[in-house]
């Protein structure tokens, strides 16, 4: 009777041990999947951060290029204004010289 009872206890212990091992494997698999999902989220967040940094850098570059274009436009406008003023001055001087030459003739 004791042997039968011991055998039943041993069988129950083996079953409990197997159940614990199954639960441990299940928890380990759940942890592995959870870590894998967290790594995927981290990778997505890092990718988004990189993309945002690149967008910010591109926006900064575009702003810099626009500022340079504005400066070039202003310089060209100033140059065109100076050329027009110089041309008018040369035209006036040429007219004055022609008038003086005409008086001398």
Describe this protein's structure.
- By secondary structure, the chain is an all-alpha fold.
- It is 98% helix and 0% strand.
- It contains 1 helix and no strands.
- It has one helix spanning 2-104.
SS element count, helices? 1
Give Rg in angstroms.
45 Å
Helix share, percent:
over 70%
User: Helix and strand succession?
Assistant: H
Distance between the termini: 153 Å
The gross shape turns out to be: rod-shaped
Strand content: under 5%
Major sheet:
none
Structural class: mainly alpha
Number of strands: 0
Arithmetic mean pLDDT = 94
List the uncertain runs.
Answer: none
Descriptive labels:
105 residues; mainly alpha; 1 helix
Layout of secondary structure:
Elements: H1 2-104
Kindly summarize this structure in a few lines.
The chain has 105 residues and is mainly alpha-helical. The chain is built from one helix and no strands.
């Amino acid at each position: 009777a004791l042997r039968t009872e011991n055998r039943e206890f041993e069988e129950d212990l083996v079953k409990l041990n197997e159940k614990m091992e199954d639960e441990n494997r299940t928890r380990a698999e759940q942890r592995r999947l959870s870590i894998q999902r967290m790594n995927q989220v981290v990778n997505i967040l890092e990718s988004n951060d990189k993309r945002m940094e690149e967008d910010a850098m591109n926006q900064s570059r575009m702003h810099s290029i626009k500022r340079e274009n504005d400066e070039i436009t202003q310089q060209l406008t100033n140059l065109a204004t100076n050329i027009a003023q110089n041309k008018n001055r040369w035209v006036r001087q040429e007219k004055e010289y022609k008038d003086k030459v005409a008086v001398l003739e």
